[in-house]
Amino acid sequence: MSNIIECQDLSYSYNDGKLETSVLKALNLSISPGESIAILGQSGCGKSTLLNLLGGMSQPSAGKVLLNNVDLAQLDEEHTTLLRAEHLGFVYQFHHLLKDFSALDNVAMPLLIRDNDKQSANKQASELLSNIGLQNKLNHRPSELSGGERQRVAIARALITNPSCLLADEPTGNLDAKNAADVLALMVELNQAQNSALVMVTHDQMIAQKMQRVLVLEDGRLNES
């Protein structure tokens, strides 16, 4: 089975004045359907940079990122956006929900952007929110939801299009222990149910141990934990 994402000798560096700083160094990574991966590393080591490269939101200094066997560097911005929307979902430490829209509207939005009809989009969004225990919060705006509820809405929004891979950057970082555990369990459950890959950047060893693979980013390279 083909990899969803593959990095080949991926490198990334940036210039700060006359000084060039190398963040990632000839890194290789393959992500298969249905697998879950945790990426650990100290703050500032490049974990979020790597996630942005995997999602096509940054360009590598050298090497390749293949998404569904397509080299992202060979696409223009429009086609990169379309490919990303088709295959990837994103969850961040901050939920980034639209504050003036209900939970239902936020989750349905990716389908509406794809030109799905509103009735069908709302039906799918309602079913997904109900499946994760938010059936009584469909019409609540983000300000009316708890931190854990907002993050669950963000996860539902990321998964509504059935992406091949979910990229998550410290998704439990702003939550208390109970909500963090609930959100993590939800992500793992949906990862398995949809057979979508899950790549999670985290600093938490306890969270990492729930993933099938644990990789440590150190000195610009990934190593199996």
From TrEMBL:
Residues 5-225 form the ABC transporter domain. GO terms for biological process: lipoprotein localization to outer membrane; protein localization to outer membrane. The keyword Cell inner membrane applies. Pfam families: ABC_tran. The keyword Lipoprotein applies. Keywords: ATP-binding, Cell inner membrane, Cell membrane, Lipoprotein, Membrane, Nucleotide-binding, Translocase, Transport. One of its GO terms (cellular component) is plasma membrane. GO terms for molecular function: ATP binding; ATP hydrolysis activity; transmembrane transporter activity. Belongs to the ABC transporter superfamily. This is Lipoprotein releasing system ATP-binding protein LolD.
